[in-house]
Amino acid sequence: MSERMIELEVLRYDPEQDEAPRFQTYTVPYREDWVVLDAINYVKDELDRTLSYRWSCHMAVCGSCGMLIDGEPALSCHTFLRDCPDKIRIEPLQNFPVERDLVVVMDDFMDKLESVKPYVVPKEEKNIDDGEYLQTPAELARYKQYTACINCLLCYSACPQYALNDSFVGPAALAIAHRYNLDSRDVGRSARDDVVASNPGIWECSFVGACSEVCPKSVDPAAAIQQTKIASTADYFMKFLMPWKRK
Amino acid sequence: MSRRPYVREISGTSWWLRHPRYVRYMAREISALFIGIYVLILMAGLFRLSQGEAAYEEFLAKAEGPVGMIFAIIAMVFAVYHSYTWFQVTPKAMPLMIGSKRIPGSFIVAAHWIGFAIASVALWMLAGDRI
Amino acid sequence: METINTDVAIVGAGGAGLRAAIAVAEANPSLKVALISKVYPMRSHTVAAEGGAAGVIKDNDDFEHHFHDTVAGGDWLCDQDAVDLFIHEAPRELMRIEHWGCPWSREPDGHVAVRPFGGMKIERTWYAADKTGFHLLHTLFQTSMKYTSIERFDEYYSTDLVVVDGRCHGVTAIEMRTGRVRFFRSKAVIIATGGAGRVFPFTTNGAIKTGDGMAMAYRAGVPLKDMEFVQYHPTGLPGTGILITEGSRGEGGILVNKDGYRYLQDYDLGPPDPWPRKKAMELGPRDRLSQAFWHEQQKGRTISTDSGPVVHLDLRHLGEAKINERLPMVRELSQSYIGVDPVYEPIPVQPVVHYTMGGIDTDIDSATCVDGLFAAGECACVSINGANRLGSNSLTELLVFGARAGEGAAKIAANGDAGLDGEAQDVAETAEAQVLALFRRNGGAESVSGLRRDMNEAMEAGAGIYRSEDSLKTCTGNMQEIRERYANVVLTDKSNVFNTDLIEALELGSMIDVAAAMACSAMQRKESRGSHQRLDYPERDDDTYLRHSLAHYSSTSLPAVKYRDVTITRSQPAERVYGGAQE
To answer: Is the pLDDT reported for residue A247 higher than 80?
Structure first.
């Protein structure tokens, strides 16, 4: 019995040699328990050492290996060959400039992440000796799902608003801002407003919801953004009705 | 020096054809157009009503004619689709919790459909002998 | 070659590197910190740690117990002054990161919760569901953004330390997107590059764990300490080696062989009931559990699969609710990667290389024998883990010793001067030339992937869970040969832009040096202790070997191994007692 083989059609790009990206096809063995990343590693180790891509943990927690698999943003370490056709199209993530082969330029996201002030602005200062900020399981549950973001950028790849306008702060950054806004220990919501509750922030989102559909960690950034819109709208009215109230 | 990041553009007009989820999104958005036109038709009807019975009867004849009815059916399909998609996403915008447990989204969606049914029946009854 | 002037250069942006960066920024905000990492910080392997971080905070616990658990768990190879410092700093560091927003799991009254973990008599492992490393890393990374004095250099692969006359003046690194080598001239350097699990073929470790920082310090004259001690985590998924956290046993999971028998009771870890019970059965230390597996395999009592022999980790009796609440990632990993739902079926598991206890020789302040050079985290060996690390001590270690490294580096940088311009520049340029020589080499016979595979196989065969004189002799011979073959490695990829063939070739060079240190240190230690087990020397020999091994680099031959006494303060070596035999 001959070994079953499948084909990977991979988008290549070396700026020192190529005018524009081009497809290259590789034939790799099929293994029942392999993911697409295993097939790509096979290509690099056995067929073509010039293929560049990012990967590390192989367990869907580091967020390195995001790419387009048959046009859909996915983690290559979490996409099983058994769920794919015999010919798989592999491309770098959409909506980011391509550096080399499957490696995209992520600078824009890193800047946006930093811009939303993704850290606790504490309600009260506490010394280490005073112990922990008390936080009940219910308070933890309020923001817990938004802590799960692995920064894999599949959401930015799926978002048509980001595709058409890259000044959009984007799903992951806004979800992480929401995570801090909901954390009972934090009072930084107003400090985040100028980036979050702005035109290129939440108001650029038209709730397509593709981000939440492709998110491998069920963070649901679309929900985070809509909730932030409601909170921000309420803030706006409160400014007139009850100007003395702090957010 | 040797870097040359390549930007892969997508079409501003046909991007939504790339995947069914974007087609569904565009359908949801375009529903607003049909609902908006129907609101204008209702407003025209009110205006005609203010101009007297003859004007109003003329308006009704056009609205209940073949073109009017086909448009009304299309608008209703889009309106129901709009309500469906709106109800589906409401739990995302308003997460309700009891202690550490989230109330399942399906409960919130179901509550909206029940409200929709009640409002529809009430309006139907108010419409009285026009039916 | 462009020079970037900075005050403190930190190589590695995982838990230890980020904590060190924040420590420098807080100690002295006027100091410039260059945080250099070959991957974006959130990709660092800290992210994959699951179970938790140990620190004494509950009323039923005390420092003496944490001290004794750690020292006994390390088979008395731990430096006890370092362990004392570690356990006292532990709760403070964990509390600090709570203040920074880490989403620790809580008790109903809002206090931080703790769970039982292997080898610990009293539960003290703080946890954030079963993704503690992920939450620690992201909390540290996002908190680091508060400090404007920290400048990140993401995707810069560090190649060499610049050392002149026993003093460190900085580090050279390749900017991966352009291929250009840069010299980071600094007054202090901290290495926090993680362990070297990728030396072995089956490991929980991600692609990036290639021991680069260990190799850099080693080549610069710092000995690598206790390299023979490599931990096999008892429960990795077959095939992928994906980690199934010890927390699953902390919550009550059991290990059974092909007869459904809880075999650990045959290896001085029983009796099996009552269960769960701390420091007994499946909550014994990792080295003993992995060794028990090896023995079961010899007896033919393991289950054969296409990915080798396995045993079963059974969580079914915990119930779906508890698994979803405490072990959601375990369930998800098991379902995705091997199609097993632990709510209904036991998970097949096998021992997998997980952690390198050994590393860069540092003292209690994270300082090395080279002035201005510090190291912290898995790449370093203080030693608090000794011959075998207890689960959940490592994440805490990143914070405690990362902070100490940062504080020490900040002091040096505040006092130091640039010094020795010309000579440091020469060393940096030599380093650059070596990288270019590898890049431009043509006509060699070796490929990176082929040579790497040979190294992996030789290490697994010669320096696995159980070793012998013969296996190690073969292994060290292989390492020497592989190092000679490395001189013939040729790159297929000749691009300057994001050349991963080059990076993998350099990583292979690091691994070969580290592997040689592991194999030689293992061959010299003629005793069994902790995770270093010899079939030909099955007993522990405190008279001769209550000492750390120190492997010294040679560019022409295998490393020479010397010894240094372990610091014993108040706990004399005794028998490691687990299971029912305790008190």
So the answer is: no
Residue A6 phi, psi (nearest 5):
-130, 170
B130 touches chain C (CB under 8 A): no
Tens-digit pLDDT profile for residues A105-121: 999 999 999 999 999 99
Report pTM.
0.95
Catalytic site includes residue C249: yes
Chain B neighbours (≥3 Cβ pairs under 8 A) are: A, C
| pLDDT, mean over chain C | 95
pLDDT digit string, tens, across residues C518-559: 999 999 999 999 999 999 999 999 999 999 999 999 999 999
pLDDT tens readout for residues C62-73: 999 999 999 999
C426: left (phi over 0), alpha (psi -120 to 50) or beta: alpha
Domains of chain C: 2-231+355-418 (3.50.50.60), 234-352 (3.90.700.10), 425-540 (1.20.58.100)
Q: Give C401-439 pLDDT, tens digit per residue.
A: 999 999 999 999 998 765 567 889 999 999 999 999 999
Q: Minimal Cα distance from C239: which residue of A?
A: A33
Q: Quick check: ipTM above 0.85?
A: yes
pLDDT band at A1 (very low <50, low <70, confident <90, very high): low
**Chain A residues lying within 8 Å of B16, measured CB to CB:** 160
Closest CA to C380 of C8, C19, C117: C19
Give A107-241's CATH code, choosing from 3.40.30.10, 1.10.10.60, 1.10.1060.10, 3.90.220.20: 1.10.1060.10
DSSP state of C370: S
Q: How distant is the Cα of B22 from the closest Cα of chain A, in angstroms? A: 7
Residues in chain C, pLDDT under 50: 583
- Give which of C165, C150, C185, C123 is closest to C41, Cα–Cα: C150
- Write out the two tokens for C102: 């880490």
Distance of alpha carbon C40 from alpha carbon C331, whole angstroms:
28
Would an 8 Å CB–CB cutoff place B97 in contact with chain C? no
Predicted confidence at residue C139, as pLDDT, reads: 98
Q: Is the pLDDT of residue A187 over 50?
A: yes
| Cβ partners under 8 Å of residue A241, min gap 6 | none
Domain boundaries defined on chain A = 5-104, 107-241
Residue A38: C-alpha distances to residues A78, C331, C457 (Å) = 10, 22, 19
Mean pLDDT of A5-26: 97
Do the Cβ atoms of A50 and C492 come within 8 Å? Answer: yes
Backbone φ and ψ for A30, nearest 5 degrees, come out as -95, 130
Q: How far from chain centre, in Å, is Cα A70?
A: 18
Taking only the tens place, the pLDDT of each residue in B2-57 is 899 999 999 989 999 999 999 999 999 999 999 999 999 999 999 999 999 999 99
Q: Can you give the pLDDT at residue A246? A: 62
Most B CBs within 10 Å: which of A208, A226, A229, A230, as the mutation test of the B interface?
Answer: A208
Which residue(s) pair with C8 in the sheet?
C33, C188
Question: What is the predicted pLDDT for the residue at B99?
Answer: 79
Q: Which of C45, C115, C198, C233 is catalytic?
A: C233
Our CA dihedral for C467, C472, C476, C482, rounded to 10 degrees, sits at -60
CATH of the domain spanning B15-130: 1.20.1300.10
Residues of A in contact with C438 (CB under 8 A): none
DSSP state of A43: I
The CATH architecture assigned to A5-104 reads: Roll (3.10)
Using H for helix, E for strand and C for coil, what is the string for C6-52?
CCEEEECCCHHHHHHHHHHHHHCCCCCEEEEECCCHHHCHHHHCCCC
- DSSP code, position C106: B
